[in-house]
Amino acid sequence: MQMTFTLAEEPDAQTAERGRLLFAGETDFVKGVVAMSGLPDPDRMEVCFAGRSNVGKSTLINALTGTKALARASNTPGRTQEINFFTAGESHYLVDLPGYGYANAPLPVVEKWQRLLKQYLSGRQTLRRAFVLIDARHGVKKVDDEIMSLLDSSAVTFQVVLTKADKVKEKEREKVLEQVRGALTKHPAAYPEIVVTSSEKGWGIPTLRAIIATLE
Q1: CA–CA distance from 140 to each of 117, 121, 146, 179 (Å)?
Q2: Closest Cα partner for 147 from 164, 123, 130?
Q3: Tens-place pLDDT, residues 105-122
Q4: Residue 19: its H or E element
Q5: How far is Cα of residue 83 from the mean position of the Cα atoms in its chain?
Q6: pTM score, two decimals?
Q7: Which of 90, 99, 138, 212 is the one with CA 20 to 30 A from 145?
């Protein structure tokens, strides 16, 4: 049976409150990691965020945590060259993965990021879900398909988060969603709900907070 990939519904009041409370707690930068030996102790549940450079990953993390500069946003693609760990309350890590594609970096550096990424995804037992960010203006690109295939092979459930949804008209957004849904049918690790967000407008932020707060 083929997955339909519906849009994630807004949470009920109780679930939304769980999400709010998780992100209302203290959120701190823990460390940036460049090798597996530098990973923090796996003593709490974690979720990671992956996406093409300039997809709005840092801005989304800042929106989730209600801060303006927790995750470093940049107009320069590929600036984030480490796996960055942040705490959410006392129970979660939020993990900001290096941006992929269009990175303004030498090939050996890119290859090093890719090796670290593969090691992290396949070897982190406390990782509950990856969120793959897709720009609502562009849909799924080849490099997105590659990261999804990596998540498939690592047996890591991933969920697509459509970013910058306010930048396109509803009709165009529907076209992009159809393209995204078609791309996801090829990936067995894909979670069957898509979250549509706009960090600028606040769209989908309570929904994503609730999803993270209720992961088992």
Answers
A1: 20, 20, 10, 7
A2: 130
A3: 677 777 787 788 889 998
A4: helix 13-24
A5: 12
A6: 0.92
A7: 212
